[in-house]
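Deviation from plan, reported transparently: magnesium ion complex.
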Amino acid sequence: MSGLPWVDPVLSQGVPPVLRLEHVGKQFGATPVLHDVDCAVAAGETLGLIGPNGAGKTTLFNIVTGFVTPSSGRVLLGARDLAGQDPAARARLGLVRTFQKSLTFAALSVRRNLALAALAHAGDGYRWWGGRAALRRAEAQADALLADLPLAVRANVPVADLSYGEQRIVDILIALAQAPRILLLDEPTAGLSTAESEQVLALVRERRGDAAVVLIAHDLDVVFRECDRVAVLDLGRLIALGTPQAVRDDPAVHAAYLGGLPEAA
Ligand SMILES: Nc1ncnc2c1ncn2[C@@H]1O[C@H](COP(=O)(O)OP(=O)(O)OP(=O)(O)O)[C@@H](O)[C@H]1O
Ligand SMILES: [Mg+2]
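Because the crystal trials were delayed, the predicted structure below was used instead.
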């Protein structure tokens, strides 16, 4: 499974991938950051993306979501080449992400943040002067997103006044408000307690619908438990891609994580 060249099994199984990275490379100036990353995400799967700090994980998300242009290669959503599509256009196509650092409007309430996300998804942008009816609809969607969550009682609280864990829940809800086909999560549990991490992961599991999920996380126990498959980046190269068990047993992965992988929980 490890050692290039190899073919992502999703591509050899005749299942049309929902997302395809075709020989993606990236250089920042003279510095190469990603080399020939070739893989696919299958419909409905949860794919883990792991690798040491600086391996290129976030850069890969930036390329997929259109914040960064690849130096080589292509990104395909279904059969559609995404070249030239900006992040907003990609989000409307269902390619939705969260960020390593939260991007909420800190001074606005939880409900208003979620309503803005719903408005943006509905194509009304941030034009809340577009009509009270549109805003009311969006706020109803916000309340539906919050329903049954402990955070519902804090709907009118400014995001700045939430705990860090609550803010990460808001990040996930903002992503879900955009009806993702593919949900890209960049370290959604970083800095959270075990209990808070479990809340975030449960929310993703319960509300993702049919969406495929790509999960970047440094907690390998979480990745191995949550994911159907795991991709490993090291120094910008995809060095392994397979089931959690196969990746866990891969000597190339152990070599990338000097000191070894943590024991299974
Ligand atoms: N805009 C940029 N300009 C120059 N170099 C960049 C830029 N963005 C990222 N890099 C470099 O690319 C490499 C990969 O960074 P990236 O943030 O993708 O890693 P990562 O795997 O997400 O790391 P971490 O686990 O620490 O979040 C790093 O060496 C980083 O310094
Ligand atoms: Mg990163």
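The beta strands are 19-28, 31-41, 46-50, 72-77, 80-81, 95-97, 182-186, 212-216, 229-234, 237-242. We consider this an acceptable substitute for the interim report.
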